[in-house]
Amino acid sequence: MTTFDVQMLLSGQYHDMLVAGFKMSLQYLFYAFWIALPLGLVIALCRLSPFKALRWIGATYVEVIRSIPLLAHMLFWYFGVPELLPAAWKEALYAGPVESICAVMALGVYTAAYMAEDIRSGIRAVPAVQMEASRALGLTYMRTMRLVILPQALRFTVPPLISQTLNMWKGTSIATVIGAAEMMYQAGQVESQSFRSFEAFAFASVAYLAVSLVITFAAIWFQHRYPVRTM
Description:
Layout: H1 7-10, H2 13-47, H3 52-66, H4 70-84, H5 87-95, H6 98-125, H7 128-136, H8 141-156, H9 158-171, H10 183-194, H11 197-225
Helix pairs in contact: 2-3, 2-6, 2-10, 3-6, 4-6, 6-8, 6-9, 7-8, 9-11, 10-11
């Protein structure tokens, strides 16, 4: 019976490979989050805009993006998008970490569609009288959104946004299909070189679990520290 080799996870070449993949996955999560959240906010505001064209753009984005699996998004950004770029941009892209760039963009753009719906729900949860009162006081629509509505709406949306962040963290594993050197890719490399699949994928599983728990506990702390205040 094969024993579990803890030592290979604590030091040596395979340890370094797995840790490098873990760090890369965290970087994907960080950069994709800062694409998804602002983009989701913009799409949510488009969906609630008084202008029909903006509402149509927002609704189209959400429906199209959410109807396509993340795997297809990942492959499209890697194999399709570079071919649509001008030659100079395409050359510059392939000169850099193209797999990482495409993985981050796919994760960010995909998650933004879900975050947009969560933010839109949070905005609609704010009592309509606050919008009416703010407009009556002379605030413009955008100033009312920025100063009155959004600060309250974002507190309503913390739980669903955390859920989407967790999904995005787990979604970083799909980047392995385009050869991005994230954690699952490195776990696969360790397994193929050492034939220690249990150790390699146990490391990945524990790492995914640990980061997920950290995100969850951070959300719980935030909700206790900044509770939602309702009228």
